[in-house]
């Protein structure tokens, strides 16, 4: 089994999301999508106020991440 002798840089890993956008591309995307982003935030605030959403449990989130990292380390 051939393995690279050096770790592959994160920007070369194919995660299916494509290349990382430049700062200018990201700013342009935010400008194009500002209204939709703001509406999404307003909707989320409304749902939270109506009791349709629960606050995030950071301990649960960290536990999930630790489990994923442990699984990745084992291969």
Automatic annotation (TrEMBL):
Residue numbers spanned by region Disordered: 1-23
Domain of life: Bacteria
Lineage: Bacteria, Pseudomonadati, Pseudomonadota, Alphaproteobacteria, Caulobacterales
Protein's name according to its UniProt entry: Uncharacterized protein
């Amino acid at each position: 089994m051939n393995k690279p002798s050096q770790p592959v840089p994160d920007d070369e890993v194919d995660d299916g999301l494509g290349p990382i956008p430049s700062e200018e591309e990201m700013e342009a995307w935010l400008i194009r999508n500002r209204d939709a982003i703001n509406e999404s935030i307003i909707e989320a605030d409304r749902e939270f106020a109506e009791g349709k959403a629960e606050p995030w449990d950071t301990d649960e989130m960290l536990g999930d991440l630790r489990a994923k990292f442990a699984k990745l380390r084992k291969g």
